[in-house]
Amino acid sequence: MARDNYGHFINDEGVEIRANTDKRGKDHIDFYDNCPVNDEEHKSIHIDYDSDTGTGKITDTTSGKAESTDVKCFLTTACMRHFQENFDDDCYELRVLRWFRDNFVSQQDIQHYYKIAPYIVKGINNEENADVIYDYIYDNVVDYCVEQIVDGNYDVAYKRYKNSILVFEEQFARSVLTERLTDTLKAVGKTL
Asked: What is the DSSP string of 40-76?
């Protein structure tokens, strides 16, 4: 891997990798299929990640359109922490889980997941042993469900997925939601 004139890394296939931390302390990693100079057309993946909160966004333009994934998703966050430097938002596990979501999970459960997952992530990140919790989620939800899906045990995977969300909601999101409600009620009380 070599550096170009701007200090960016370029691998043997011409993929440019840029990494920086902005003024707010948020980490950014950008991958380009070729050096994007003078607004040349290019494909890219942009990862914005706050390692303190475990939140961020991955924007992928390699398919010709911008597709974003919010890493407030606790399944994605578990994969990110499991794979660390080798994380790929299109990793095998997430592809299998997305296929399963799109083909077997009810819209009601999907909507509930996307509403509650950011609070679960925030609650987990408030725990001292967050890394242990994410390892548990990877091993006992992500990896387990992927194995069951691949084996065609869709009902077993769905049950584990749904029960895990309910358990994590109770364990981690309840305190975050209670705190948020309390803050809202205090703010409303001050305006009355």
From this structure: ----EEEEEEETTTTEEEEEE-TTSS-EEEETTSHHH
